[in-house]
Amino acid sequence: MRLNATLTAVTERIITRSAKTRTAYLERMRAAKSQGPARAHLSCSGQAHAYAATGQDQSKLATESAGHLGIVTAYNDMLSAHQPFETYPAAIKEAVREIGGTAQVAGGVPAMCDGITQGEAGMELSLFSRDAIAMATGVALSHNVFDATVYLGVCDKIVPGLVIGAQVFGHLPAVFLSAGPMTSGISNDDKAKVRQKFAAGEIGRDELLKSEMAAYHGPGTCTFYGTANTNQMLMEFMGLHLPGSSFVNPGTELRDALTREGGKRALTLSALGNHYTPVCDILDEKAYVNGIVGLMATGGSTNLLIHLIAMARAGGIILDWQDFADLSDIVPLLARVYPNGLADVNHFHAAGGLGFMIGELLNAGFLHDDTKTVAGEGLDAYTHEPFLDGGALTWRKGSSENLNDKILRPASDPFQETGGLSRLTGNLGTGVMKISAVAPEHRVVEAPARVFHDQDEAKAAFKAGELDKGDVVIVVRFQGPKANGMPELHSMTPFLGIMQGRGQKVALVTDGRMSGASGKIPSAIHVVPEALDGGPIAKIRDGDMLRVNAETGELEVLEEGFLAREAVVADLSAYQYGTGREMFALFRNSVTSADTGATVFGD
Question: Where are the domains of the chain?
Answer without folding.
Answer: 5-183+218-391, 421-596
